[in-house]
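Render this sequence as a predicted structure.
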Amino acid sequence: MKPAIIIIGGYNSIWAAYLKMARDLEDITGLRAVGVPLITWHWWQARRTGDATHLLQKVEETVAWARRKFRAERFILVGHSAGGLLGRLYLHDGPVWGHTYAGVEHVIALITLGTPHCSGRQVGWFLIDEANRLAPGAPYADRIRYRTVIGRWLQGRREGSYAEQRAHRTYRFFGGRGDSWGDGVVPLESASLTGVDNLVLDDVAHSRKFYRNWYGSSAQIIRRWWPEGTWYDG
């Protein structure tokens, strides 16, 4: 039985933004792909409460739907930006805000795209801090495959262009240094997890809001980060 791909979108995103990415993934992999139906309101509610239970429940519901619809028993999570943090929390085999998802029991891989893991650091944002508290690093690397992906598109500059100044601010927040390189939102050093497959892509930005080339913009870019060869059976 082939696995299915579950796409978890980024902060303040809506599922429709990932439709083309899903179709491209299906064409490239021969697997079925579906996105978690998140909308901006879901993220607003999480920010207001400091609790992402309703977001994780959407992930859980989407996995259950894909199991019925595609008859899949195993899943590959592809998390963009904050969606990668939700992926890490969904894998956790203990309680997360009072509910246990234990996605590690049926997930075979987690691929994160421009996710601010900030591994080993507390940064003051509830999703990052909870992921690093409950599931630091890659605790299930002996059971599933991890891959982190980050674009090297823009260097932050305090006195640069608007995009460079914005990058300087977000890089400082996530990594401590504003003059780092990154995808325009997340610096290179904050997007990796220790001991797993960390991939840097030149000329790839965080999202379509910043640049035409982003992680899901084309089949050509997706092929650059999708693992080569047949690394799952069935």
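Summary. The radius of gyration is 17 Å. The domain at 4-148+214-225 is CATH 3.40.50.1820 (Rossmann fold).
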